[in-house]
Amino acid sequence: MWKTASILVTIVLVLITLGVVMLASTSSIQGDQLFKDPNYFLKRQLLWLVVGFLAAFLTSNIDYHYWKPLALPLALFSVILLVMVLIPGVGLNIKGSSRWLRFGSANFQPSELAKLATVIFLAWWMSRVQRHALELVRGLVIPLGGLGLILGLIFIEPDFGTTMLIGVVGMTLMFVGGSRISYLVVAAAAGLCGFTLAIMQDAERMRRVTAFLNPEKYAKDEAFQLLNAIYAFVVGGGGGVGLGQSLQKHFYLPEAHTDFIFAILGEELGLTASLSVVVLFIGLFICGTRISFRAQDQFGKLLGFGLTMMIVVQAAINIGVVTGSLPTKGLPLPFISFGGSSLMVSLAMIGVLINIARQSGDETETDESRCIKDAAHRI
Which residues, 6+ apart, have CB-to-CB distance to 273 below 8 Å? Predict the structure, then answer.
């Protein structure tokens, strides 16, 4: 498994390197205007990168089995932080959303920790019940109750993008863990209905959906960012306009160094670079699932699969939003977008995957087919 782990590490390092280069190019103008320092955002990202590498080093050297007794405490700790975010005067409110806690000069986003905590909690619980996973209470009600609590707190921040991400990955993990598909379909349908109703009651989110469906009509307001992102890809073409030569980053694409950095990458480096990023995330998915399938036990399999899905699904949503395939949501592109909390937690997840790979023996190729057969049997 070391070969797979080595490929995984290489992919992540390439994504991080590309992210640092693009951040240096994309954020210089805004950094100069806001902080009189064109390298302000780059410096902060590099500091978080050091913290992230330390987190990855620690998690890669901690036996992943030690996460079992920490599953419930970590989930409860995440819930406490998510509650603190919602307390006026404690949580940091930016642009109408309370998603951050301030620690000195740094802001931390508890929903990022909740991603890791959710995967560990569900992997622990589903591996614990195993043969009872098809039951209504142990296979659905209890894990869905924990998942629902975390989703509810993130939802009211409000952070619809992260809510959807954790919900999708959580339900997928429950399915892989053995929950009955009919129960999950009903629960997912109910959750989707509630999510849709909430969006319909939120004027701002409803405008985003409307703008997504008819961007030309809302070109000057809600669809402004989307249309400029698409325009960046058009201008970039196959080979790009050249590193540092983006026009869209001159405030035509607001805060391009965060959620929409993929558009600037496409403009400056072209279609080849954009497709390369997609291929790298596909490679990350293949490596992560291969590691998870070959884990020593059910907990390791579920933990590895859940962490892989959390990173890859987030990347898919971000790329979908930037290319106009999905309505606008505030999710960064893992390892590339500016965002310290996301970078640190994503690297910690990679560290856990490396530890799972370290402890995987020479298992047979039938593990993958066995997982597929189990899923087919439950359907």
Answer: 18, 240, 265, 266
Edge-first strand order for the sheet with 97-103 is 91-94, 97-103, 106-108
Produce one character per residue of 122-159: b if its CB has 16 or more CB atoms within 10 Å, e if not. bbbbbbebeeebbbeebbbeebbebbbebbebbbebbb
pLDDT tens readout for residues 276-302: 999 999 999 999 999 999 998 999 999
Name residue 100's beta-bridge partners.
92
pLDDT band of 365, cuts 50, 70, 90? very low
**Is pLDDT of 361 > 60?**
no
Beta bridge partners of 92: 100
What pLDDT is stored for residue 280 in this prediction? 98
C-alpha distances in Å from residue 174, one per residue of 149, 151, 155: 16, 15, 20
What's the pLDDT score for residue 221?
A: 74
Measured CA to CA, the distance from residue 371 to residue 293 in angstroms comes to 8
Whether 82 has a pLDDT exceeding 90, the answer reads yes
Give backbone dihedrals phi and psi of 157, rounded to 5 degrees, phi first.
Answer: -65, -45
CA 64 to CA 173: how far, in whole Å?
A: 17
What is residue 378's three-state secondary structure? helix
